[in-house]
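Hey, weird one. I pasted the Flagellar protein FliL sequence into the form twice and got a warning about non-standard characters only the second time. First submission, copied straight from the form history:
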Amino acid sequence: MEEIDIKQQKSPSLVMTIAAVAVLTLVAGGGGWLVGIFLAPPPAEKAEAVAEVPENATGEEGLPKIATEANGIVQLEPITTNLAYPAENWVRVEVALQFKGVPDVALAEEIHQDIIAYLKTVSLQQIQGPRGFQYLRDDIQERVDLRSDGRVTNVMFRTFVIQ
């Protein structure tokens, strides 16, 4: 008879443990859901988000671009040119310009041509490594400042590839 009593005593403790774990899981899940509602903003509907994007700011897939004239940023066409030395090396750069006030597309095109002309005078040794890239960024920023008379506040590099 003692064996039966021992088994009966162990059985309720296992059921109680499972019940306690289930209740704690539900409480934790509910608490996480509640905190998520208070901290996370509600998702914006897709139709509203697309309606707010200017027509010229959508990419090929219909997704909005970061660089739009509405927010003062003009993304220049990608620049692909060979370097001064060695001439068989090519560089591809995608740059966006942040204007102070209304963007000037004509000025952006002049800056685009100026960056192309500058990149043709740069050698591979000048732009190698992080320090060389920083010098290149500083030189381009300085050229843009001179060309724009301070109307362009920031030059943002989107891609930089040397082949």
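That's the output from the first submission. The warning seems to come from a hidden character in my clipboard, not from the data itself. The two ends are 85 Å apart (CA to CA).
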